[in-house]
């Protein structure tokens, strides 16, 4: 009888185990199947991605055939290609766009550069160049852009007719670049304002000299205009009226003072000596 009870117990245990397994499959089966499918799909995608990348990097379809440039005035395509190492036959997928932009940006005329890939086989390069606005004296002569940045040392081949900005030396620039650029920007703004009053370039501006009292304009004929600080437009209007009056009287000025802070509307003029007097001759 004991043997029969043991046999029945084993049958009951087996039935319970089967029922437990069936319940577990019924409860967890869908989730387990989903996990298996997702794992298989992930493996397939990874493998597919690896194979796709291998094909893209080796396919002749994506070999560079043409590079186009826009925005060039001073820099040349050849110079930028040489700096970047970009050549026909390189794979577009393998190009490091950021590295290409950084390399081309080392050209002295280049202010900003944007490289774009156009699949399957071309690249475009959009360049924003520095626009020279004046010359700065920092030991050597440097080209200054509109923001007052000295972006390039003046070379013999740089044929530019630009006003000179003086009064800042190299030590000043090294000590505080931001402050120096701001002063340069102010000087360039005054130069532009003056040029706007001389549309025919009849009396060209030669130099903007920055001094403790403000700014001094030096015209091509050597005449100095002491501008002081502030009210640039109003002062330039007074300057135009004074010069017109002097011309009408057949006179010329050596120095015109517009920097009187106590009486802003006042203008003082130091007349030029007659030619005969300057040469020491009697009339």
TrEMBL record:
Residues 1-10 have a biased composition (Basic residues). It is a single-pass type II membrane protein. PROSITE patterns: POTRA. Residues 62-130 form the POTRA domain. It comes from the Bacteria. The chain crosses the membrane at residues 32-50. Residues 1-21 are annotated as: Disordered. Belongs to the FtsQ/DivIB family. FtsQ subfamily. This is Cell division protein FtsQ. It comes from Archangium minus. The lineage of its organism: Bacteria, Pseudomonadati, Myxococcota, Myxococcia, Myxococcales. The gene is ftsQ.
């Amino acid at each position: 009888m004991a043997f029969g009870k043991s046999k029945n117990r084993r049958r009951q245990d087996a039935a319970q185990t089967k029922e437990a397994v069936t319940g577990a499959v019924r409860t967890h089966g869908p989730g387990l199947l989903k996990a298996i499918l997702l794992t298989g799909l992930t493996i397939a995608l990874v493998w597919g991605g690896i194979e796709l990348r291998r094909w893209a990097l080796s396919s002749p379809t994506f070999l560079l055939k043409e590079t186009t440039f826009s925005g060039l005035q001073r820099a040349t395509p050849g110079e930028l290609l040489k700096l970047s190492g970009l050549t026909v036959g390189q794979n577009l997928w393998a190009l490091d766009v950021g590295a290409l932009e950084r390399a081309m940006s080392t050209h002295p005329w280049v202010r900003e550069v944007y490289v774009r890939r156009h699949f399957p086989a071309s690249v475009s390069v959009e360049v924003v160049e520095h626009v020279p606005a004046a010359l700065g004296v920092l030991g050597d002569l440097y080209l200054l852009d509109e923001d007052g940045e000295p972006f390039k040392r003046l070379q013999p081949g740089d044929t530019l007719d630009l006003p000179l900005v003086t009064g800042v030396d190299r030590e000043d620039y090294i000590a505080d670049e931001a402050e120096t650029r701001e002063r340069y920007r102010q000087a360039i703004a005054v130069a532009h304002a003056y040029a706007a009053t001389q549309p025919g370039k009849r009396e060209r501006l030669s130099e903007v000299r920055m001094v403790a009292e403000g700014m001094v304009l030096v015209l091509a004929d050597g005449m100095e205009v002491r501008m002081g600080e502030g009210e640039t437009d109003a002062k330039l209007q007074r300057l135009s009226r004074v010069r017109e009056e002097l011309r009408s009287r057949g006179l010329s000025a050596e120095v015109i003072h517009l920097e009187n802070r106590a009486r802003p509307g006042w203008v003082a003029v130091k007349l030029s000596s007659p030619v005969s007097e300057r040469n020491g001759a009697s009339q």
